[in-house]
Amino acid sequence: MRLTTRKVIAAFLSSIAVFTPSSLAQLDGDDTIKSVPLRTHSLLQPYLDQDLQSRWFDWGGDTIIRADQYIRLTSDRQNQAGWLWSRLPLTATNWEIEWEFKIHGQGNLFGDGMALWITKQRAISGPVFGSTDNFEGLGIFIDTYKNNRPGVVFPYVSAMLGDGQTSYDHAHDGKATELAGCSARGIRGASIPTKAKLTYFQENYLQLDLQYKNQDQWVQCFNVQNVTLPQVAYLGFSAHCGELSDNHDLITVHSKNLYSANPNRPGPGRSGKPRKSTKPPKGWNGESESSGGWGWFLLKFIVFAIVCAGGYIGWVAYRTQKRNSRF
After folding, report:
1. Residues 220, 198, 152, 180: is their CA dihedral positive or negative?
2. Residues ≥6 apart with Cβ < 8 Å to 32
């Protein structure tokens, strides 16, 4: 089939239209908030490198890693505790952490639960969902066993800001030390992938969203204004079982550095307090401010390849048409 110059140009232009920056920007949902992936605080299968080690995370206790499926912090056996912690501190001013997990087991009675940590301490086993008490920073607890908290439906998800001296309120399931929380009936043993998304803008708000009812349906658990976390803290996950047990699996972790493209316009569902623009500096995690991260590098490479391919195809079509015109 003969290629004409007009057809080549039309195909070339349609190819470029697919990869325009505007089409990529729509993936963000809120065009006032931009993000840069934090590879140092993210986890995907197979989790381990060829030496069966993780470059960015340490683990311990009863944690088991099955490279093709999950990181199991505790198995469905009594008296287990496991943890996984980032090796590098989370130094981003504003960030979002989305993690997929699965809590399940064989028994009709189960416990105790799992936690996410943003704390100055790291990799220390203890009585608070498998990690140390008297922590300094933030703990997010998915508590599956009710001790003594009347009027509250379990499983229950709560947050605590630790000052390094205050102990977690075990006797009342964290009631005395709770910053915010919500009931999440159905989050254990759900038929869909269960996820949580924690968003933090320094001195503005801390928000937790959960997915456990329907696929791609997020439910806001809490939004707390004027929260300040330690500027240098580690990301961790832990779980604990006592006389009752459960499997507590960590599937994936996606962490992002966030910055506001329009500091005078707050995002939906957030306070109207103007945010400071915290665009990441050049060199952040190997990505520059001008490039916008690996996504923009890939975009530029694709456009460059399309231009080269289009030019070559056009030249071939022109030479073919000119040769045919001689006859």
Report:
1. negative
2. 260, 261, 262, 265, 266, 267
pTM summary value: 0.73
Contact 59, 81 (CB under 8 A): no
CB distance 251 to 137 below 8 Å:
no
- The answer to whether 49 and 213 have CB atoms below 8 angstroms apart is no
Phi-psi region of 93 (alpha: psi -120 to 50; beta: other; left: phi over 0): alpha
How far apart CA 127 and CA 279 sit, in angstroms, is 38
258 in the Ramachandran plot: left (φ > 0), alpha (ψ -120 to 50) or beta?
Answer: beta
- Provide the 10 A C-beta neighbour count for residue 85: 21
- pLDDT tens digit sequence for 1-55: 444 444 434 433 333 333 333 333 333 456 688 999 999 999 999 999 888 889 9
Residues 6+ apart with CB under 8 A from 23: none
CB atoms within 10 A of CB 303: 15
Over the stretch 141-153, which tens digit does the pLDDT of each residue have?
999 999 999 989 9
What whole-number distance in Å separates Cα of residue 286 and Cα of residue 109?
A: 47
Rounded-to-integer distance, Cα 160 and Cα 175, Å: 10
Give the integer Cα–Cα distance in Å for 103 and 274. 39
